[in-house]
Amino acid sequence: MDNSFNNFSIKEEEGSVDLKQEVRRYIRYWPWFVLALAIALISAYMYLRYAPRIYQTYSKVKILDESEGLELPTSAFIFKRTNINLENEIEILTSYLIMDRVVRKLNLNTSFYEEGTIQTSQIETLPFEFRQIIHSDSIVNNMSYKLRIKDNVLEIINENTEKTFSFEDFSTLNKSHRLPFEVTLNSKGLISDFGGRNYIIKFKPIKGVALGLKSKIKVEAIGELSDLLKLTIKGESKELSERILDTLMDVFDKDGIYDRQLISQRTIDFINKRFLLLAEDLDSVEISYQDFKQNNNLVDLATDAELGLQQRSESEGEVFEIESQLLLAKSLDSSLNDVDGSGLLPANIGIENAGINSLISDYNIAVINRDKLATSGGINNPSVKLAQNQVEDLKSNINRSLKTYISQLEVSRQQLENRNRRFSGKVAQIPEKERLLNSIVREQKIKESLYLLLLQKREEAAINLAITEPSIKVVDYALSGSNPISPKSSIIYAGAILGGLLIPFGILYLIFILDTKLHSKEDITGVNSKIPVIAEIPDVKSKENIIFNDPNDRSALAESFRILSSNVDYILPIKADKKGKVIYCTSTIKGEGKTYVSINLSLALSSINKKVLLIGADLRNPQIHTHINQDKHKSGLSNYLHDIDYDWRDSLISGFDKHLNHHIILSGSIPPNPAHLLTNGRFTKLIEEAKLEYDYIVVDTAPTILVTDTMLISQLADATIYLARANYTEKNLLKFSKELSESGKLNNMAYVVNSVGASKSYGYSYNYGYNYGYGTKSK
Fold first, then answer.
1. 80 has a pLDDT exceeding 50
2. pTM
3. DSSP codes joined into one string, 53-94
4. How far is CA 173 from CA 107, 167, 169, 521, in A?
5. Where in the chain are all domains bearing CATH 3.40.50.300?
6. Is the per-residue pLDDT at 147 higher than 90?
7. What is the mean pLDDT of residues 146-165?
8. Which of 45, 160, 536, 698 allows an S-S link to 753, with CB 3.0 to 4.6 Å?
């Protein structure tokens, strides 16, 4: 029979995950789900009704490649990738510097809001004239001003100081104030249109607004191989968002243009400075060139070289001619000195002296004339002598002329040789002069080429400055969607439904997870599958009739104890001696209902005409007397155990009039040594004697985890009913009872779950908590 219970428990364990049971576990709290769902849907409706509408605005730009000219193919070209680093461009686009310029250009640190009954929404600008007085850089703290347009006055409230300014003519221009702005509603139409409305003007520091804008704008590349960037911003005002994106693209484009123009402008400035230096260098080089030519008498180096060579050649020819004349003159002089008195001199031998040639001619004529006279008149002829004298005179003249001519030729030759050496030196200096002149000319050409190059670059820079190409090409200017991206009603309602279901589910799940209490027999079989659960005692709402007084009672409580009595009888071993069966009722801790179950189990057994004895063996904290209106200190078990002359039959009482076969032995006076009394042998004697007189002996024992009283007498039990109370017993305490059963400390143990279905602790109280001991007051 015991095995049947065990098999049943094992099957229960195998099906431990029961989906239906889990669903029923949560469905019990269906009002929570309905309430949470209703609240969530109402909240979603209210949120959608008053939540600000957020629109998404986007624009697209293409980053232009600044590379120019022919370039060798790169890896980017081979793999069809762009040379533009889009990550760098994205960082520049979202940099604080660019955002600061956008904020300043659009004056975004001044924002406007229209205040409604519930919702305050941002607007692009005020619907009337507004002029900001304070400079943006002067705003160091957040400032907020509320404008109240009433029928007869315009009120402006400083929300930081709560100071109010009133303007009866609806204009701040006609009254002195210290507001950072001017507003005017002079038109009666404006006053009537905006009467009763409230507007808010907020001033914020530029840095905070720029950083906020930086976090709001998202820039991402469109595809891996594309040069396009998509700029996205979300905001309440579509017009303001579009202005921000368009301004951002314009500022970014102008920033790139300015960078390139700055390069061109700096190039021009550098070239202009270099022009001044180059002009001075060119002047210096040209002056050096001029001075070099003047100092060296140069007009043109090639012409001067040719002229020098020609002069040298001519000078050498003249020297040759002089030397020839000198040689002829010396030969003639030698001939003149060597010839006798009648010898003739050679004529026209090449001497280029007309006087000498004339004298030689006269000399030869005189010689011929002398010789003719000597032949005809004799040597001593006076005519001959006169002719001889004439010859001698001519010879003397020739000799003197030759000497003079030779001297002249020597001087001329010396002069020519000196001049020739000068010409030779001049020609020899031409390479050096050419080298020096070439260095000057080379320096001049370098300066001129550099000057021309810089002049060309300055013109190119000026052209680039005038026609700088843009940094981006705008593919799409800022566009806003017609429908808001937030809030989305479908998502909000879906989230509300999901939240309305998940929140109570999560709370319940958390409660169930944190709940360490035992609730049903499934909690027991999940831990101790081998120990049967023989009954579940329901929780009784009314705590007045919790005792099985009437044997014919047909209440749910009575039936549950009849089932318990039947199952107890089923697990009791069959004995041939026909003696009574001993049933222990115990629990792990106090408050689990062992006394309550003991009394009702004994009454259930008595109701089937069985003789039953109920013994109160919880000597430390007896409770049976509270259910039968008996004195706590009435003589009972402790008196019998202590007094060997005391007969236990003297302690028998009939606590229930309708149960004639039912007797009770109370615990008696609380002893100081219950463990010693229970082990002195008299309790065993009592049980053995009672077996002979009663069919069932039900023993209400002490809790097992607190004291050892029950284990000291556990070997006397035929069956041990172990109580666990729903919503009271800790699940981890089941391990203790499992160890008692597996170790054999409790005989033939079976579980009974008490107060099943209770949502609170048991209504009847035993007047003590978890601390088990003496001194409990009697009721």
1. no
2. 0.55
3. PBEEEEEEEEEPP---S-----HHHHTT--SS-HHHHHHHHT
4. 22, 9, 9, 85
5. 532-756
6. yes
7. 90
8. 536
